[in-house]
Amino acid sequence: LSKLGSPTVSEGRQDQCEAPSDPQFPDCPGKVEWMRARWTSDPCYAFFGVDGTECSFLIYLSEVEWFCPPLPWRNQTAAQTAPKALPKVQSNLSHLLDLVGSGKESLIFMKKRIKRLTAQWALAAQRLERKLGGTRRDTEKILIHIGFLTEETGDVFSPRVLKGGPLGEMVQWADILAVLYVLGHGLRITVSLKELQSLLQPGVPPGRGNCPLTVPLPFDLIYTDYHGLQQMKQHMGLSFRKYRCRIRVIDTFGTEPAYNHEEYATLHGYRTNWGYWNLNPKQFMTMFPHTPDNSFMGFVSEELNETEKQLIRGSKASNMAVVYGKEPGIWKGKEKFLSILNKYMEIHGTVYYESQRPPEVPAFVKNHGLLPQPEFQQLLRKAKLFIGFGFPYEGPAPLEAIANGCIFLQSRFSPPHSSLNHEFFRGKPTSREVFSQHPYAENFIGKPHVWTVDYNNSEEFEAAIKTIMRTQVDPYLPYEYTCEGMLERIHAYIQHQEWARNASVAPGAWPPGYSLQAWLAEAGRACTDACLDHGLVCEPSFFPFLNSQDAFRKLRVPCDSTESEMNHLYPAFAQPGQECYLQKDPLLFSCAGASTKYRRLCPCRDFRKGQVALCQACL
């Protein structure tokens, strides 16, 4: 945007320089009043041509910011945008490796992973291209800012890469980079706050940061994390609000709507260190499909070809177990399980140590130390069992083990772990209850590949070990965790996920409305569970279709009264009394959440086999 110049009364427009009363711009009169009193508080307003006249206020608030409607007498020539190029699916990832950069152990790890999976990405790209045929796609300019790897956030991950620290986030980020590159989009990758600022710097006006950027944001989409989100907001100032609909937040454990809505979270005790960004909840992208309120991003596991599968079938040791856990603390207090397991199986560990064996690992365990990924894969291909002791939660390793022909044994949590009773989840923006170490493995894969037992019951634990030794399984990998499955899913998101500037949720063309199935949840049941009961998934984008008296009537709910309020459980009705409640704020539409007081109206949809994020007609 250039300087607007100072309008003069001689233009004969004085009568049209009054703050309009327009319901689509409710903040306009208040903003004009604020400008009248404070326009000299920041030099950036004068930079944009504000000179103290009513006309200059309205021009600024309609053409630089977006609080007032365009003035009809102004020249409204829309900016011409060049047509976007058609993307070409990429199968050579060497340029991506250059884009990732170097210098940090975390980046080296990610580059090694991308390089190792190059052949699988190339094959998946060919399959997806055939599947899409002549479908029209646009090349997007994408900024990828990995905030948790910046020096300003401490970059705690890089030093721990070589010491057994958690790698799940870096596995996911490596795969996100590969997916976006393979799909043919233009990428700019940064793990530096200084570089991020330089990318945005040309558009920062002089002054104290109260004005928007002076040039349009040069990126169509931004992928970042919670740390990066905070860094962007601090640097972009007012423009953050304008461009936040372009942001996608990689959020491992998810953010529920009640925590995302700043005012609601503050009033009702959902305020945490994370959350409260007032984004569309679908802009948060998770590692596993925890809740349909967010978008399931995922990652990939290495696939075996038929020859490799045949070799595994012939080389499995029926009495070999590998323990899930590279840090010594995970083994602490697990002697009882290990001694039972040792009666039947040879136990292997991959616990990091520098000079001497960690005391938490019993002498009868064969500890290999920290293994590079290819060697860890080879260990899994020999083993019969991959066993978890309750932590870490929901990492990539169990899927890798199952894909290499292992059975995964994990502990059932009773009571379930959540932010209410467990330190790990405390402060995370979700009320989700976790009933086992890896709920996705339990619920979406299950037996014979996944066994979930009560580790406090020694007899049940021992019986499971005996049965597992006699159970034959083939390598298995859910389609949504293959390279092709992830490419398909992210392609669909980029083509179809669009949100208005105010981040409200409105009925759109995707997913298509005809895939909606409405159901009433029983009292105390969340919509997530109610839809699953019918073999469906909850689809939050359909909530507006159910947020009306007509929807209650079609579901044969007689309403004695109907009120509209802010509540993440609405639309719903209370019994007794048949009081019906509609949702007042679209940002609070939520598949999660339940109360014994309410029966919720739930929007459900079908899904593609092995691709829960997409409906049958969503590709």
Tell me about this structure.
- This is alpha-1,6-mannosyl-glycoprotein 6-beta-N-acetylglucosaminyltransferase.
- It is a single-pass type II membrane protein.
- Residues 1-23 are annotated as: Disordered.
- Pfam families: Glyco_transf_18 (PF15024).
- Keywords: Glycoprotein, Glycosyltransferase, Golgi apparatus, Membrane, Signal-anchor, Transferase, Transmembrane, Transmembrane helix.
- The chain has 619 residues and is of the alpha/beta class.
- The strands form 3 sheets. Strands 7, 8, 9, 10, 11, 12 and 13 form a 7-stranded mixed sheet that branches. Strands 2-1-3-4-5-6 form a 6-stranded parallel sheet, with helices on both faces.
- The chain contains 23 helices and 19 strands.
- It has 4 domains: 1-80, no CATH class; 94-251, no CATH class; 306-476, Rossmann fold (3-Layer(aba) Sandwich); 504-605, no CATH class.
- Mean pLDDT is 90; it is low at 1-12 and 501-507.
- Helix 5 packs across helix 8, helix 6 (118-132) packs across helix 20 and helix 15 packs parallel to helix 19.
- The radius of gyration is 27 Å and the shape is globular.
- The longest helix is centred in the N-terminal third of the chain and has 15 residues, at 118-132.
- Strand 17 (572-574) and strand 18 form a beta hairpin.
Short recap of the structure:
This protein has 619 residues and is an alpha/beta fold. Mean pLDDT is 90; it is low at 1-12 and 501-507.
